[in-house]
Amino acid sequence: MAMTTPQKMLRRITQKQLDRELGFGKNLTTDGRMMNPDGSFNVVRQRSSIWDNTYYHLVTMPWWMFLLTVVAAYIVVNTLFALLFLWAGFDGLKGLEHVSPQQDFMEAFFFSSQTLTTVGYGSVSPTGLYANIVASFEALTGLLSFALISGLMYGRFARPRARVVFSDHLLVSPYRGGKALMFRMVNARRSELIETEVQVIITINQSGDDGVMARKFYTLQLELSKISFFSLSWTIVHALTEESPLFGFTQEDIMNGNLEVLVLVKGTDEANQQTVYARRSYIYEDLVWNARFSPIISRTDKGLPNVLTRNIDSYEMVG
Fold first, then answer.
1. Which residue of 109, 145, 191, 192 has the fewest C-beta atoms within 10 A of its own C-beta?
2. Is 54-158's fold the same as 164-317's?
């Protein structure tokens, strides 16, 4: 007789679900995670064209990659126009010495760069209708290209971003005679975040009355959900009392339910008065039971508070 694998027993949550739609839809997979640790969503969208996310990639890619892309585009454009100039023949560019094909190409390349940037040293100049048309078109291309690059540079600098550093682990720690769920975060910018709010939502597998398993969302009540100035570290605390959706849950219950904790942070950057956001996701594998965070606030030689950001995830086990 064939053996059947028993289904995992899921602990039921009696509290009211989240009363609004998060944007994940109603039909969700019951395995895997919906949000990556860095806050990006685990969603793949089908492209309608290859240019769909060009601006997004150019603005969000690392600086070294952006600068490398600009240099590569600069070389490709100048190479293309150098070949167009050489196509005009020896009479297309006045001032070429015609020592060798390689030397002609290099001189045409540098003339192209001078035309693209509107420098125009004058040692080489276009002659004839064809060469002047190519030079005019390249000058226009240069004006548009540098305007585009300037816009992208401004977009990269002006894009509001919150540099909030989160602890790698989520702790279940002793708290007021019971236990609490905790994680820690630090503002890594020199500018202050004002009127900072945090919201914590859990998603967990639940079996309905019809026996169908689905993902359910619940809001966690926090000890403190809003502060006026986010200048030091901030430990987010959710007490595991009878009002908590996770009250009485064991490590096995959390693992069977494929728990995921979604953290949403919103604040105003005082440097530019823009609203910034940060996100983080924790799963049951990031959970550490019976532990507490170690202090990360020290004092400088002048007695000022010093936030040890690199130690944000330091914790110690408790009995």
1. 191
2. no
Distance CA 289, CA 146 (A): 55
- Give the C-alpha separation, 245 to 17, whole Å: 9
Q: How far apart are CA 222 and CA 198, in angstroms?
A: 9
pTM: predicted TM-score of the whole model, two decimal places? 0.75
Q: Residue 72 half-sphere exposure, CB side, CA atoms within 13 Å?
A: 6
Distance CA 175, CA 172 (A): 9
Q: Give the residue carrying structure tokens 């969603």.
A: 43
Q: What amino acid occupies position 116?
A: L
pLDDT digits (tens, 9 = 90+) for 58-67: 988 899 999 9
Residues in CB range of 284: below 8 A, 6 or more apart: 251, 254, 255, 258, 259
pLDDT bucket at 2, cuts 50 / 70 / 90: very low
Per the listing, tokens 């009127």 go with 195
Contact 234, 47 (CB under 8 A): no
Q: Smallest Cα–Cα separation from 277: which of 266, 293, 290?
A: 266
The Cα 118–Cα 99 span in angstroms is 26
- Reduced to 3 states (helix: H, G, I; strand: E, B; else coil), residue 20 is coil
Q: Which CATH number fits domain 164-317: 2.60.40.1400, 3.40.50.300, 3.40.50.2300, 3.30.420.10?
A: 2.60.40.1400
- Coil, helix or strand at residue 71: helix
How many CB atoms within 10 Å of residue 48?
A: 7
Contact between residue 111 and residue 147 where contact means Cβ atoms under 8 Å apart: no
Q: Is 168 exposed, middle or buried (0-12, 13-18, 19+ CB in 10 A)?
A: middle
What would the CATH number be for the domain defined by 54-158?
A: 1.10.287.70
Per-residue model confidence as pLDDT tens digits over 197-215: 999 999 888 876 666 777 8
Residue 111, both tokens = 């003339």
Each domain of the chain, given as residue ranges in start order, spans 54-158, 164-317
